[in-house]
Design brief:
Elements: H1 3-43, E1 47-54, E2 59-67, E3 71-79, H2 86-94, E4 100-107, E5 114-118, H3 128-134, E6 138-140, E7 149-153, H4 168-172, E8 179-184, E9 191-196, H5 205-218
Antiparallel strand pairs: 1-2, 2-3, 3-4, 4-9, 5-7, 5-8, 6-7, 8-9
Helix pairs in contact: 1-5
């Protein structure tokens, strides 16, 4: 048995794993910081005095200390692919995981209806549509050509319990793509939107957050 060759293979494998981890961590930190710089102008529309916290190397949390009306509180998450862990990265990527930007808010008054519009094959919404159907949510229309599916409950937009006669297509119109999920809930968070980062940074962050605020004002 060639013990020397075995040790050399072990050392080489360890160096590859450690090197990949270091490179993947560096890539995620750079990508996260670049996205935070892009998003910073839009943060002023959510409120003042934001705290930042890294969640490992694959997530960033931003919390707004003093949210602007109609928001009571707001938080932003950047969820990155686990590029520092090659096996998990390959597994999650095969299942559709991509870098996500998530904005959540509690409103000063709870919505009078509930709405879910989501991409059924996205990583973060896997199984959500099936759960909604089992929980007596009813299908709602979406804009023509949209890859999203929508469900409503409690009267829904445009119904007896809806707000200001809005419909799901009207609420989704003008929202920056690629939108992964729009959730309107009576429970907190009352409003949540998710976007794939890929392609989103070609828009202005001010416009992305303004779309979020416009929706909050209509609820």
């Amino acid at each position: 048995m060639d013990l020397g060759g075995g040790r050399a293979a072990f050392v080489l494998t360890a160096l590859i794993v450690v090197g990949w981890f270091a490179l993947g961590t560096l890539l995620n930190i750079r990508r996260g910081n670049r996205l935070l710089r892009w998003f910073q102008p839009g943060m002023t529309l959510l409120g003042e005095r934001t705290t930042l916290r890294w969640l490992g190397s694959s997530g960033v949390e931003l919390k707004v200390q003093h949210a602007l009306p109609p928001l009571k509180s707001a938080e932003v998450f950047v969820l990155l692919e686990p590029r520092d862990l090659p096996l998990l990265w390959w597994l999650f990527r095969a299942r559709g995981r991509r870098d996500l930007l998530i904005v959540r808010a509690e409103l000063r008054a709870a919505p009078r209806f509930e709405l879910e519009a989501l991409h059924p094959r996205a990583w973060s919404t896997r199984g959500v549509a099936r759960a909604l159907e089992g929980d007596r949510w009813t299908p709602a229309p979406v804009p023509s050509g949209s890859p999203l599916v929508a469900y409503q409950r409690g009267g829904g937009p445009g119904g007896a319990g809806g707000g200001r006669g809005d419909t799901a297509p009207e609420m989704l119109a003008g929202v920056a793509l690629p939108l992964v999920r729009l959730a309107v809930r009576r429970t907190t968070p009352n409003l949540e939107m998710q976007w794939e980062v890929r392609g989103l940074d070609r828009a202005e962050s001010h416009d992305v957050v303004e779309a979020f605020r416009r929706l909050a004002q209509r609820l």
